[in-house]
């Protein structure tokens, strides 16, 4: 009975310590996903509708939920690995009926044929003494894999929130383009009407009228394309945010004129890649495989298992808890594999090769990350320049239209010519809209390549 109490007490103490420590850690750990969401960055756009969509995607998007479930699954894998460091306690009863059909002799003592029941109800404990730290390393490896899965989740948040913002900006862009295009179609319709009057009066050739009609069909076709793309973008935004119950044309958005342009840095430190999920994953993977190599090496060493049983054994169920029915044992079992067909050596060599491959992958990740950061910064700067040039072109076109309007007011310019000047102004405005949205989208690409960090202050945090 004393051994039974020792085994039971040891098991309860170990399990209680594990559960208490885990509950304490969960209680003090904030929701790390809020950091992945990075609302402070999105609030820099001063657009509550955009931040509302980001928050809605956080709550509803299935890809984010799947990524979070993957993290929870990896947590259970860590617990499964940690369970190998703890003693195992179980119950495995043995109840059978023995029918002895031959005479049994113990020296001069003869036992004739007999039959009897046997009842054995023990608690069994086993514990692998982790002398070499192999089980501890397995748990450590599982934790590294858990960190890799968390980086996958973080990458999902960066990618999805950027996609939400990109679709949102595109939706605003097509709103503005459709508005300008409708005005162009309206002007061109009036121009065609006036050209028809000129043609009937013999003031223009038929080819001039046909050219204006052809331009009207082109503008109308372009308007239909814009409307179709707006429908596609609004549906995509609905899927990303989980707002499938809303009609595409009812998606909320701000006005084009309210969009905020953020300033990008002229240059960026290459150390910014340390924030990228793929870089952190490559680091964690090297550490994990390094741990696995140690596990494979220590698998050649002998193992030592402490085991024990404590329970009740009787030949009659009614006396199972009676006097002199308690039975216990305690043992220590060393074991070593002498021949496994080369399996352990193959596993060890495979792990070493995987470690070498992980190192090459790490080097490749560094080079690729630096390239992507530089490429995205260069693209953003180019689109910024192009956007500024489109603004200059629009301002010049606007000045020309103001002069044309003054000429029209004093009778020095026809109404038809002024309408064509107005069309050129609308075309320049469309170019400015495309330039602005393209610049905003390039900022989002840059945001993703630096690992979801605030690009306006990322150099300050290095």
Annotation keywords:
single chain; 462 residues; alpha+beta; Outer membrane efflux proteins (OEP); 2 domains; five-stranded antiparallel beta sheet; two-stranded antiparallel ribbon; 10 helices; 7 strands; elongated
Number of domains: 2
Specify the helix fraction band: 55-70%
Shape, per Cα inertia axes: elongated
CATH homologous superfamily title of the largest domain:
Outer membrane efflux proteins (OEP)
Structural class by sheet pairing and helices:
alpha+beta
If you consult CATH, what is the topology of the largest domain? Outer membrane efflux proteins (OEP)
Average of the residue pLDDT scores:
86
Shape-level CATH architecture of the largest domain: Up-down Bundle
Global Rg: 38 Å
List unreliable stretches of 5+ residues: none
Spatial separation of the terminal alpha carbons: 63 Å
The major β-sheet equals:
5 strands, antiparallel
Strand fraction equals 5-15%
Order of helices and strands: HHHHHEEEEEHHHEEHH
Q: What's the level 1 CATH class of the largest domain?
A: Mainly Alpha
């Amino acid at each position: 009975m004393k051994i039974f109490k020792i085994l039971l007490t040891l098991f309860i103490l170990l399990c209680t310590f594990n559960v208490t420590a885990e509950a304490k850690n969960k209680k003090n750990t904030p929701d790390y996903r809020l950091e992945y969401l990075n609302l402070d960055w999105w609030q820099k756009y001063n657009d509550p509708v955009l931040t509302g969509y980001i928050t809605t995607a956080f709550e509803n998007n299935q890809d984010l939920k799947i990524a979070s479930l993957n993290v929870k699954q990896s947590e259970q894998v860590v617990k499964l690995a940690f369970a190998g460091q703890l003693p195992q306690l179980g119950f495995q009863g043995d109840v059978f009926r023995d029918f002895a059909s031959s005479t049994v002799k113990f020296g001069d003592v003869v036992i004739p044929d007999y039959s009897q029941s046997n009842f054995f109800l023990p608690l069994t404990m086993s514990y692998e003494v982790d002398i070499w730290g192999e089980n501890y390393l397995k748990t450590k490896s599982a934790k590294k894999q858990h960190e890799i899965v968390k980086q996958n989740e973080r990458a999902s948040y960066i990618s999805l929130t950027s996609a939400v913002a990109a679709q949102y900006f595109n939706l605003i862009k097509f709103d503005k383009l459709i508005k300008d295009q409708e005005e162009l179609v309206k002007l061109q319709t009036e121009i065609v009407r006036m050209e028809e009057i000129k043609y009937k009066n013999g003031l223009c050739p038929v080819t001039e009228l046909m050219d204006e009609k052809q331009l009207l069909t082109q503008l109308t076709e372009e308007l239909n394309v814009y409307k179709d793309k707006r429908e596609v973008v609004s549906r995509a935004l609905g899927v990303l945010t989980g707002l499938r119950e809303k009609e595409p044309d009812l998606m909320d958005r701000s006005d084009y004129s309210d969009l905020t342009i953020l300033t990008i840095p002229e240059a960026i430190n290459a150390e910014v890649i340390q924030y990228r999920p793929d870089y952190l994953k490559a680091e964690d993977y090297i550490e994990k495989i390094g741990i696995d190599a140690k596990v494979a090496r220590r698998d050649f060493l002998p193992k030592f298992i402490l085991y024990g049983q404590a329970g009740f054994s009787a030949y009659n169920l009614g006396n199972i808890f009676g006097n002199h029915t308690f039975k216990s044992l305690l043992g220590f079992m060393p074991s070593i594999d002498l021949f496994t067909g080369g399996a352990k050596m193959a596993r060890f060599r495979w792990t070493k090769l995987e470690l070498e491959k992980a190192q090459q992958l790490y080097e490749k990740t560094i080079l690729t990350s630096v390239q992507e950061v530089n490429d995205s910064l260069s693209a953003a700067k180019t689109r910024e320049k192009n956007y500024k040039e489109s603004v200059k072109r629009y301002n010049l076109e606007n000045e020309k239209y103001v002069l044309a309007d003054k000429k029209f007011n004093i009778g020095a310019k026809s109404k038809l010519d002024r309408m064509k000047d107005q069309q050129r102004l609308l075309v320049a405005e469309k170019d400015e809209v495309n330039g602005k949205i393209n610049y905003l989208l390039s900022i989002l690409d840059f945001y993703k390549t630096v690992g979801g960090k605030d690009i306006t202050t990322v150099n300050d945090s290095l």
